Structure of Flavin reductase like domain-containing protein:
Amino acid sequence: MTVHSFKEVMANYPTGVTVVTTFDGKNEPIGLTVNSFASVSVDPLLVLWSIGKESSNYKTFQEVDRFTINILAHHQKEIALLFANREQTEVRFQKCDWYQSEHQVPVLENVAAALQCKLYKRIDAGDHLVLIGEVIDITHEDVLPLLYHQRKMGEFPTSF
């Protein structure tokens, strides 16, 4: 087994695309594109995602107690690329519509869904940190999600 084989297999597994957002210690909004997102439990409502330890946002997510998982809509490829671009970290929130929720987390506008979470647990997992969040608020629209497959993003197929 090789790292290359592992990455190829994982790239062939289709997933949705999310942007996870929070406020840092200076009360500045930060966010990053994430496809390592899954539901965990319905009692209580728990979801998880992971962040690489080499991420520039790693230290912030080691310390926060709230975050939003913004599930991107099919037309939001540009938002996914904006939050994946390491060079544009300071201007990300200037280039998209967002608001601060009553739960004191940034929420992106026009997403398929937004799950506002309070931290439930952090788990050290190899070169990543897994964050489990308890969902405290949900907003959603009746739109198709943005999908990621074979290192490409796009709309949901109209037929199988």
